[in-house]
Amino acid sequence: MDSPHARRERPGYSGPAPVVRRLGERPMQWFRAVFQLCLWAGAASAALAAGSADDLQRARTRSLAATCAQCHGTDGRPAAESIVPALAGRSGADTVQQMLAFKAGSRAATVMTQLAKGYSDEQIRQLAAYFAAQK
Amino acid sequence: MKAALNPSRRRVLQAAGAGLLGSLAGCATTRSGPSAARVVVVGGGYGGATAAKYVRLLSAQRIDVTLVEPDPAFVSCPLSNLVLGGSKAMADITLPYDTLERTHGVRRIRDRVERIEAEARIAVLASGARLPYDKLMLSPGVELMWDGVAGLRAANEQGHILQAWKAGAETTALRRQLEAMRDGGTFAIAIPETPYRCPPGPYERACLVASYFKAAKPKSKVLILDANPDVTSKGALFKRVWAESYQGIVEYRPQHKATAVDAAAGLIKFEVQDDVRADVMNVLPPMRAGAIAVQSGLANANGRWCQVNFLNFESTAMRHVHVLGDAIQIAPAMPKSGHMANGHAKVAAAAIVAELSGWDIDQAPMLTNTCYSFVDAQRAIHVASVHEYVAAERTFKSVAGSGGLSSAPNELEGSYGLNWARTIWADALA
Prior knowledge:
The complex is a heterodimer. Chain A is mainly alpha-helical.
């Protein structure tokens, strides 16, 4: 479940980039590119209003991830020179492994052994997939 | 790739892009989508600043957010005891609001809300300006109930007895009082009955003042006069620090409920116990939700705290008004802390964005709390917890088996504590 989720995390921001990169020299290609942009933006906007199942799940997971942000930074990106590790972009498998080790007490820590016990294994997998998809 | 675009083509693309955004915006205003929605956030502390940012973030900037806060900058209560101890300056705990405006497009108004017109959904400012809202997020902090201790209001207004519980000018003023105190003098901190803002804060303050005395005025004393029957947070850890690091300096006296002060005589009077004389007095009166919440009839728990629906933090007294942070009637084991206010703000922001987007709101929100207390300039102790919404009881409860305390004060946690502050400030403001 990691990979499809990971690709869907930032649809709004990754959408137009390939179109722009493909721009050629002839005007028709410009209009086609703009038309594609419109289609993409229209779809993104409709999706936000309608709230597809994927969007809903993504919003929920983002909120769950926000419970980590006070120490690990918004969306897992900590403040400059943080001594607490970034979660954004970390491999999902690694995050799951570390969290389960904190939870089991097999990895020592000051706080994380106590906090990890507050999350279900399923929540840990969702969090790990969310952070893995953040750049 | 961008280098390949010649200027005229770039203009074409920009024009097309602008047109596209315009048409999207135009389209969006014709349906009741989130782009039409307006959220007004009242109070720019840990709860309000986070709420303003996260509504913008979670709505992909589609919801209009206005933050109403009279102060020009954010001043952190967490770490403010380090200013009293002398290892930090006010500049270290003061942050600007401008990133919230520049990066996240939050509109900021330096004013205060005078009243709420609930039916019309309008927040009326002191300036007379009227702000219409779809959702109002109220993060008013606490109001100190001066009249709970006879003579305290006047003593505070005259600058004799400070609270410094809202970090700011009084923090600096209390530090000056401590610096001016003679060696051999007594600093007394009086703690109100729970619930009050920041349960471990008074004990942390006692430690940091004691650490200053130990280094600079070793014959001086710190008296902790607690209205509660015992230390309300991190008790065993604090008592160990007082015994091991501040023996002969810190004295803890439980069941001392302050009822009156006599600033001229330097006296604090108590419900039962004998009067206490001190050179520098820091008397914290009982607290309740910030004034705007009380005046608006939102403080429906004992007239002091605001009851909320914990799924979205909507007031149980007023529709479309969501109350965050220290002002709420807490769930079991939920502290009144900056970290918790930040968590409230995120749950409320997600629920508001969901509601305004036509989504179902999350039925299983989560909250965390990690609270560091410094025992000197380097060492800290923590208490941590994880809270889940329990639908059957319609409240948050600690997840069984989660959470805990430090085993002992240590420097690693001191550096984590400072790191926590930098990171949560950025989470709320940057």
